[in-house]
Design brief:
single chain, mainly alpha, about 0% strand
Length: about 325
């Protein structure tokens, strides 16, 4: 059933898992019951029923604890941490991730430990705890390199680069993201390469090297367009607008923003919308329209949600220019 879930045949998987659960309860097989509940939880979460998935995973966890199955308990805790992060319940996710990591260490499961530490670091990063996240990314990298999990290493080293950028450690951020892009290309993880190429371009622009940033942004755009990832393309267009403005190409900058705006309005998160508003302000300043730039800053400040460190940095930079 879990193989079928992995293939996204979720209806078949649900049916098989329901049968397995019924059999387990009829036969009073607690181990099989926990496995079926875990599978149901994963399938439900993958089908966007996050609350239902969480309930099933917690039911599986309760059985594991009753059985004293610490290895499976660690796996269930790690899955619970992922679902809680997707639900936006970040502190609970971090607590579950820390518990899972401790259990993986206890039973000696380094492969799963590396994955769990990566998830925990991502949660800490989303919480705005860049310094804690950077340390956890580093811990994940040590494990992933020890077990030779090259694909996951590429994700982690690039994510650490973004945390370093948030901490203002730009040379280290550039080095980490270059490594993340290289590993992603090496293992054929095109989506990871796409995201890290964009993030590398952003770091290079932050560091005052717009001419070095553009080839990496072009690569990210090429990959995103190949995937048909509209929201990615729109986010990348905002950075393209910033590069065009640095080059003095005001109309090209405006065209890039015009292309990004409807997609970000429809699909963008708080960070995307904040950066769009700030870039609108920079464009207004380039045209000598201070009043519109101030209005754009007001919009950026009032956007709800958690914009994250990079979006807050965009607000701070525009605010400084308008003083």
């Amino acid at each position: 059933a879990l193989v079928r879930a992995g293939e996204r045949r979720s209806d078949d998987a649900r049916e098989l898992l329901a049968s397995a659960l019924e059999l387990a309860r009829r036969e009073r097989d607690a181990e099989l019951e926990a496995e079926a509940l875990r599978g149901q939880g994963i399938v439900a979460a993958d089908s966007r029923d996050l609350a239902g998935g969480l309930e099933m995973l917690r039911a599986a966890l309760a059985i594991r604890r009753r059985l004293g199955d610490r290895r499976s308990e660690a796996m269930d805790l790690a899955n619970i941490a992922i679902v809680l992060r997707r639900l936006g319940r970040l502190q609970e996710s971090a607590e579950a991730g820390q518990e899972a990591a401790a259990a993986h260490r206890e039973v000696g499961n380094p492969l799963s430990l590396g994955s769990t530490l990566l998830g925990l670091a991502m949660t800490q990063h989303t919480q705005g705890l860049a310094a804690e996240a950077e340390l956890t990314y580093r811990a994940a990298l040590e494990v992933q390199r020890r077990v030779g999990n090259r694909r996951e290493e590429g994700v982690t080293v690039g994510n650490r680069g973004v945390a370093l950028q948030d901490l203002g450690r730009l040379p280290e951020a550039e080095e980490a993201l270059r490594e993340g892009v290289a590993i992603a290309a090496e293992v054929g993880a095109s989506q990871v390469e796409c995201v890290h190429s964009f993030q590398l371009a952003d770091v290079l622009l932050d560091a005052g090297h717009p001419e070095q940033a553009r080839p990496h942004l072009d690569r990210a755009m090429e990959l995103a367009e190949r995937f048909g990832a509209r929201s990615f393309v729109a986010s990348f267009q905002v950075l393209r607008s910033a590069l065009d403005l640095r080059d003095g190409c005001v109309e090209a900058a405006a065209e890039a923003l015009d292309a990004a705006r409807p997609v970000i309005d429809e699909l963008g998160d708080a960070a995307d919308k904040t950066k769009l508003a700030c870039q609108t302000g920079w464009l207004a300043l380039a045209r000598g329209d201070t009043e519109s730039a101030r209005e754009a800053l007001r919009v950026a400040r009032e956007i709800g949600g958690a914009p994250g460190a990079s979006a807050q940095r965009a607000i701070d930079q525009l605010e400084a220019a308008l003083r």
